[in-house]
Design a protein that fits this description.
The complex is a heterodimer of chains A (146) and B (317). Chain A is an alpha+beta fold. In chain A, 18% of the residues lie in helices and 31% in strands. Chain A has two helices and six strands; from the N terminus they run H-E-E-H-E-E-E-E. In chain A, the strands form two sheets. Chain A has a four-stranded antiparallel beta sheet. Chain A has a two-stranded antiparallel sheet with strand order 5-6. Chain A is globular. The two termini of chain A are 26 Å apart. Chain B is 50% helix and 9% strand. Chain B has a five-stranded parallel beta sheet, with helices on both faces. A two-stranded parallel sheet of chain B has the order 6-7. In chain B, helix 2 packs antiparallel against helix 4, helix 10 crosses helix 11 and helix 10 packs across helix 12. Classes of the chains: A alpha+beta (146), B alpha/beta (317). At the A-B interface, strand 2 and helix 2 of A face helix 6 of B. The structure holds adenosine-5'-diphosphate and magnesium ion (MG).
Chain lengths: 146, 317
């Protein structure tokens, strides 16, 4: 079990920690809002590390004053996609930054089988590596059960 | 979630008893009304409201009553007497320019100081901000507004336009339903204030009992008397760094008497508009005298002719 030791995907912030509670998530959202970030909710069932762009759930949330609004959107997303990966990302619009300031996973499928490391032998004993999610063979929307 | 196969730092329940250390920066638990008032500094806002706003006696009294209720509620809470978060949604009814929006801003501040909303900002919207143009447009629009208002006060001006009984497929109903749900389930997250004309709001509540039953406080804003309008005019001029010249205040009083009899009078807002026009005339008057050196006095004084030139004096000889 060397490729998936914790039985969970580690991407973004806090992913080596136990799942954040909603109260902890609220604190993180609040922190981002205080720094002027705009939060978005994103989801996917293809958490391949090279899949940078997850689907947006609703619009990015600008001009919010309180974490409750972001949490409300997150709850809606969890209701719609209970077995998808969901993450919160915070956009920092500061001139010169204009990029993601925070990102962390807030919902996971019940079982995370992880990724297969595939070795392809090539000329002169060269090895080419590729990773493939075990769940990714099923079509979109059917990968982690419903 | 799958169980990790190794121990994650922090995942084990900490059994180490944490000593309760008295934090000197945290105020002691309030036991008296004075404690709550002092800790929340809410009285400063209420006094400001009293000073800054002319008239509105019944409204000010109602706000004091509501504040009293909330203060006592805090004390009950401190004694461990459980109570549901009081419903704080309100309706502000009255004619245009009677101070509804202005008071709503102060109300948000009062609720914030007493800890009933976390941030204390006010988001003011009308039907167009909530209701969409086509199927599927309304819910995201309404939710977006709700998300922005969370932690503060959502002020819906002319709320009765949300309900259009003559069109059974009107999307306003959808917005009302989303609002109701949040008003009921997220009382801690936001307070909704509906505003508009009294009679139309009454009709709206009659046809929307769900909305009516969730509004705890109805505040009615009376029209201002002639005298109050004159005082409001004084204050507005003062804050704009102007003053009435000799006889000009009387002329303005006369202006108000005439204007009050005309249609579309909008209380304090009409006063503001009238003053803006008088400033315009003052400026034109000063502009005429190209070579005159203008003193501070000249620049700040509204003279009688600036007022008398108004069209309300037109009909008289
Ligand atoms: N009692 C008052 N004292 C002083 N100014 C007032 C008073 N009531 C209203 N105003 C002023 O009149 C204008 C219109 O008030 P507003 O709150 O927008 O009225 P409404 O929302 O009822 O139409 C604002 O500029 C406000 O500052
Ligand atoms: Mg208004």
């Amino acid at each position: 079990m060397m490729t998936n030791p914790a039985g969970r995907i580690t991407q973004g912030q806090f992913s080596f920690l136990p799942d954040l509670t909603d109260a902890e998530i609220t604190l993180q959202i609040e922190y981002g809002l205080n720094r002027g970030y705009a939060w978005s909710v994103e989801y996917t069932d293809d958490p391949h590390p090279r899949n940078t762009y997850w689907e947006l759930f609703g619009m990015p949330m600008f001009d919010l004053k309180d974490a409750a609004g972001v949490l409300m959107e997150l709850q809606n997303c969890r209701k719609t996609f209970p077995n998808h990966y969901i993450r919160l990302i915070a956009f920092d619009s500061t001139r010169g930054v204009e990029s993601i300031g925070m990102s962390f996973i807030v919902n996971r499928p019940k079982v995370e089988p992880g990724f297969q490391l595939e070795r392809q032998e090539s000329v002169s004993r060269t090895l080419r590596y590729t990773t493939r999610g075990y769940a990714a063979n099923a079509p979109e929307g059917e990968r982690y059960g419903n | 979630m799958s169980q990790p196969m190794y121990a994650i730092p922090g995942s084990v329940a900490a059994n180490v008893p944490v000593e309760a250390v008295a934090d000197p920066t945290v105020a002691p638990v309030a036991r008296t009304v004075a404690d709550v008032l002092a800790q929340s500094q809410v009285e400063a806002v209420m006094d400001e409201l009293d000073h800054d706003l002319v008239g509105l006696a019944p409204v000010k009294q109602r706000i004091r009553d509501i504040a009293a209720l909330l203060v006592i509620d805090k004390l009950r809470l401190n004694q461990g007497l459980a109570a549901q978060t009081p419903s704080l949604h309100m309706s502000f009814t009255g004619n245009p320019g009677t101070g509804k929006t202005t008071v709503a801003l102060r109300m948000a501040e009062i609720l914030h100081r007493l800890g009933y909303v976390r941030k204390g900002h006010l988001v003011a919207v009308t039907r167009d901000d909530l209701v969409g143009q086509y199927i599927g447009h309304t819910a995201p629009k309404t939710k977006e507004v709700l998300k922005k208002a969370m932690g503060g006060v959502l002020f819906i001006d002319e709320a009765y336009y949300l309900y259009r009984p003559e069109n059974e497929r009107d999307y306003g109903q959808e917005a009302i339903e989303i609002l109701l749900q949040v008003m009921e389930n997220q009382r801690d997250d936001l307070v909704v204030i509906l505003a508009g004309y009294k009679d139309r709001m009454d009709t709206f509540f009659k046809s929307n009992p769900g909305m009516s039953s969730r509004i705890a406080h109805h505040l009615d804003f009376p029209d201002y008397s002639h005298d109050e309008l004159l005082q409001i005019g004084d204050r507005m001029l003062g804050t704009m760094n102007y003053r009435f010249g000799t006889g000009a205040r009387d002329a303005f009083g006369e202006y108000l008497t005439r204007r009050l009899e005309q249609p579309h009078f909008a209380n304090a807002r009409s006063v503001r508009n009238a003053l803006d026009r008088m400033r315009l005339r003052q400026a034109s008057r000063l502009f005429e005298a190209r070579d005159r050196e203008l003193t501070r006095e000249d620049l700040t004084t509204i003279e009688t002719p600036d007022i008398r030139a108004s069209r309300v004096f037109g009909a008289s000889p």
